[in-house]
Design brief:
There is one protein chain. The protein contains ten helices and 19 strands. The protein is of the alpha+beta class. It folds into three domains: about 180 residues, no CATH class; about 70 residues, no CATH class; about 120 residues, Alpha-Beta Plaits. The strands form five sheets. It has a five-stranded antiparallel β-sheet, with no helix packed on it. The longest helix has about 60 residues. Keywords: Bacterial flagellum, Cell projection, Cilium, Coiled coil, Flagellum, Secreted. Belongs to the FliD family. It is found in: Secreted; Bacterial flagellum. This is Flagellar hook-associated protein 2.
Length: about 475
């Protein structure tokens, strides 16, 4: 009879509902544990999120700990039609006159001009093409029923060979075509030549075939020279009077940290490399955004009626962040506080209810302060002169201080996360044990009510028998 409920057949009671009601009461402690587990899991997730924001903040201030972050430059050309210019953040400042005398060009060679429907080219003839990929040649075969097919097959086979030259077909006049070969690279050292690739590839493209074949194609002229349409050449320019040469139209690091892309021959333009305060301000803005993101997460989750209202760890973190950002820097520079260069917490806020703890960034004030004393701005952030961390530069002390909070495994937030892990593990085990007991309790109640119904049924049967016996006496 174990596990079988007669559900009031004898007693007339809804024993199923009675068991369900009793088990709801029994499960109240279990449900409370489930709520507690959910709360702890949510809090743990919040702590992990705050830790991520602090790691982002630490990365942002790490970029402000070095003097190079306050010497960022950019380059501009006075005439961008002559050349375009890009620069690294640490390009050397100065003014440079660049006179472009010659652009780098690719070697362009063509075949003769052929009627599309003609049959001037003999199928089956072959020549070798050397270039990219080393001394191994690609064998190119003349094939096709007419000149148009031959030229088209040559184009496809040459391009498929990938030997440093690209073929195309140009219709020179109606009904007539020519094959055009253009080197993939610029410069004199990547031109097309006749012969066989040397054992050590030298960057040139080589055509190796019989004179009769190459002349029938028109690639080799009667004087045995190439049918060149554009000669390969290097770029040449003068930078502040010094002649430079390049196999491409890109002049890289001729001016340290600057790349020049030449666009026009026989033309001049001036490059100005100067300190770029916008780039420097952008790094400061990245720090401000990361700080505001972190402090907002800390304050919003520990404020009144928040999920972690009054949490001691978050209160301590909020206090430390405020101290690290607002405290005086004991460096050698003229600036000692962030507000002196345009960064201020809760600027203009007078009511405690309106305070957010967030930084505001006045870019104009920052630029003015930087232009007045760039070294002092750098010192305010990156100074490492003071013995105590709280007296170092803003970026330096934040970087050091946040390490105690964010260190993997042993940081304060990692320690708090591991504490949640332990609590959650304990609660999970308690819930598993309690659920087992509840299951046993429910089975026990079912047995008890089933036994009761069985007993009542037996008594009812006996009662009916006795009544029938008494009635028979009359």
């Amino acid at each position: 009879m174990s596990g079988i409920s007669l559900n009031g057949l004898a007693s007339g009671l809804n024993t199923g509902e009675m068991i369900e009601s009793l088990m709801k009461l029994e499960r109240i402690p279990y449900e409370k544990l489930g709520t507690k587990k959910s709360t702890l899991s949510e809090e743990q997730g919040l702590i992990r999120g705050i830790n991520t924001k602090l790691v982002t903040l630490r990365s942002a201030v790490a970029d402000l700990m070095y003097s190079t972050s306050y010497n960022l430059t950019s380059a501009k050309a006075s005439d961008s039609s002559v050349f375009s210019v890009t620069a690294t953040d640490q390009a050397v400042t100065g003014s440079y006159n660049v006179n472009v005398t010659q652009l780098a060009k690719k070697h362009v060679v063509s075949s003769g001009e052929f009627s599309k429907t003609g049959q001037d080219l003999t199928a089956g003839a072959k020549f070798n093409l050397f270039g990219s990929g080393g001394a191994t040649a690609a064998e190119i075969t003349i094939k096709g029923a007419n000149n148009q097919e031959v030229l088209n097959n040559l184009k496809n086979d040459i391009n498929a060979a990938k030997k440093g030259v690209t073929a195309s077909i140009v219709e020179t006049t109606p009904g007539k075509q020519t094959l055009v070969l253009t080197t993939d690279k610029f410069g004199a050292d990547a031109d097309i030549q006749f012969g066989t690739m040397p054992g050590t590839p030298d960057g040139h493209v080589y055509l190796d075939g019989s004179d009769a074949l190459l002349k029938s194609l028109g690639i080799k002229k009667a004087d045995n020279s190439l049918n060149t349409r554009q000669s390969a050449q290097n770029a040449t320019a003068e930078v502040n009077g010094i002649t430079v040469s390049s196999a491409s139209n890109e002049l890289k690091d001729i001016i340290p940290g600057v790349t020049i892309n030449l666009l026009k021959e026989n033309a001049s333009s001036t490059i100005t490399v100067a300190t770029d305060t916008d780039k420097i301000a952008a790094k400061i803005q990245t720090f401000v955004d990361a700080y505001n993101d972190a402090i907002t997460a800390v304050r919003s989750n520990s404020a009144k009626d928040a999920k972690m209202q009054g949490d001691s760890t978050l209160r301590t973190l909020q206090s430390e962040l405020n101290e690290l950002v607002n405290g005086q820097v004991k460096g050698t520079g003229a600036y000692k506080f962030l507000f002196e260069i345009g960064l201020e917490i809760d600027k203009g806020v007078t009511s405690g209810k309106e305070m957010t703890g967030k930084l505001t960034f006045d870019k104009n004030k920052f630029t003015e302060a930087y232009n007045k004393d760039p070294g002092a701005v750098a010192d305010l952030f990156s100074s490492n002169a003071a013995a105590a961390n709280k007296d170092k530069g803003i970026a330096t002390r934040l970087y050091n201080g946040l390490f105690n909070w964010t260190k993997t495994g042993t940081g304060l937030l990692a320690y708090k996360v591991s504490g949640y892990d332990a609590d959650l593990k304990t609660i999970t085990q308690q819930m598993e044990d309690m659920n087992l007991r509840l299951t046993m309790k429910e089975k026990q109640l079912q047995k008890q009510f089933t036994a009761m119904e069985t007993a009542l049924s037996s008594l009812n049967n006996e009662k009916s028998w006795m009544s029938s016996q008494i009635n028979s006496w009359g």
